[in-house]
Design brief:
The protein is globular, with a radius of gyration of 19 Å. With 280 residues, the chain is of the alpha/beta class. 38% of the residues lie in helices and 21% in strands.
């Protein structure tokens, strides 16, 4: 099982500080140096939570990943996940193929439909029919990356006689990961994805039910679930690194959804995911 880490890219809600690119880059290089398999970045434009809807900022993911692709040499780079509605899907496929070239075949294209409406509204991006738009986009992104050509005229997106040239370093393009839950999104995952992501978990016993739902979707789509790699986003916490007030906070996550403990206890928890056949 591969193990990676998500890099911080957004404004801290407590301090108001946003990591500079040089700090993000140093974390990525540290992850590569200590032997982790992958680094991941998330795709948001801004955050607005709560009654006051105060804005928290974040860096743009493609630009950061392009810098990290050049800065690193071995480690895989992924998006967890790219918000498909933010970009034209055929252009997104072009960008993914190019980033795979820059990284020499180390890119994993994680895709999602989006969920945080304030950022859609602020940047003038439609928030309606998210699943319909996502499905139509996948019909463009997948064939362009895997076959180099697509001809789609849809209700939301069009790619009439689109062709991807030049192709990146891998004949079928970067692997497509879809983060999904719910019957329809899981069926789209079974139809289009190379990898499925479920998050955020802590204790390994939480995976079984979600996996049964994925397997049901695979059965509906006639796909062998063994051909769809399972990846899991796991929240970890080391108590000796947390301030006491944070440990006791009323906003602390459900203990079952955090893998908490010593280095050895965290390793044992991750090993339990590996024992369930998790790929990453």
């Amino acid at each position: 099982m591969k193990v990676g880490v998500i890099l911080p890219m957004s404004e801290d809600g407590d301090t108001g500080q946003t990591p500079r690119y040089v700090e993000i880059r140093e974390r990525a290089l540290t992850a590569e140096r200590v032997g982790l398999d992958s680094i991941w970045c998330y795709d948001h434009l801004l955050y607005r939570f709560g009654e006051n809807a105060e804005t928290r900022g974040t860096w743009e993911v493609w630009t950061v990943l392009t810098g990290l692709a050049e800065a690193t040499e071995r480690i895989e780079l992924g998006t967890l996940v790219m918000c498909v509605p933010f970009r034209n899907p055929s252009v997104l496929a072009k960008m993914a193929s190019t980033l795979d070239e820059v990284s020499d075949g180390r890119f994993i294209l994680g895709l999602g439909a989006g969920w945080h409406q304030p950022e859609f509204d602020a940047f003038g991006i439609p928030f309606d029919h998210k699943a319909d738009r996502f499905e139509e986009a996948l019909e463009i992104i997948g064939p362009l990356l895997r076959e180099g050509h697509v001809d789609v005229r849809g209700a939301y997106y069009s790619a009439p006689n689109a062709e991807l040239r030049p192709l990146g370093p891998r004949p079928a393009g970067p692997p497509i990961l879809i983060a999904a839950s719910g019957p329809r999104m899981l069926r789209l995952t079974a139809k289009h994805a190379d990898l499925w992501n479920t998050a955020w978990l802590g204790q390994p016993n939480l995976l079984a039910q979600r996996r049964r739902e994925l397997e049901a979707a695979c059965a509906d789509m006639g796909r062998d679930p063994a051909t769809l790699a399972v990846t899991v986003g796991v929240t970890v916490a080391f108590p000796d690194l947390l301030p006491e007030e944070e440990e006791a906070s009323s906003e602390a996550p459900d203990p079952a959804k955090v893998l908490r403990g010593s280095t050895e206890e965290i390793a044992a928890g991750l090993r339990a995911y590996a024992d369930q056949g998790v790929a990453h």
